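Protein modeling request. Please complete all fields; requests missing the sequence field cannot be processed.
Requester role: graduate student
Desired output: 3D structure, token encoding
Chains: 1
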Amino acid sequence: ANIFMKNLMDFCVGALLFFAVGYAIAFGGDMTGLGKFIGGDGWFLAGDGIVSYGTLDKFVFFTFQVAFAATAATIVSGAMAERTQFRSYVLYSAVISGIIYPIVVRWQWGGGWLAQMDTPFHDFAGSSIVHMTGGCAAVMGAYFLGPRKGKYSAEGKPQTIPGHSIPFAILGCFI
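Delivered output (175 residues):
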């Protein structure tokens, strides 16, 4: 239930933060003079004057990008399972969805420095922007949190951690 709630909060908190600041950082205009690295216009989807991206309506495009932001945040939940408190995880989700992920998006999809190179970087369906951002955050989270409680004995020897909920494990395999 805890992991389910964390993944649900990834989307809820992530959508709010991506709406408030993340979209502006990723796709906003260059108010800061750092346009290759970070956007700074269009907070709360306002003020950028853009009504569509190619054939997509702005709000359809935004919804599509929210799904990517939530995916990047959710990737980390497996690495941090049973090692973080709920409040701490919600804070992490807010930071990655509202700041870290949008900066990485800006670099390529938002027309930043990776897109402006002589030989531009190409990301296919989020393979690096979404999954590498989530994967790097997962590695850092696992490194800083350390092993799960009960993984090692007092002598430092690894111990097997028994499954906590076999029905949920089976359900997870089906999903």
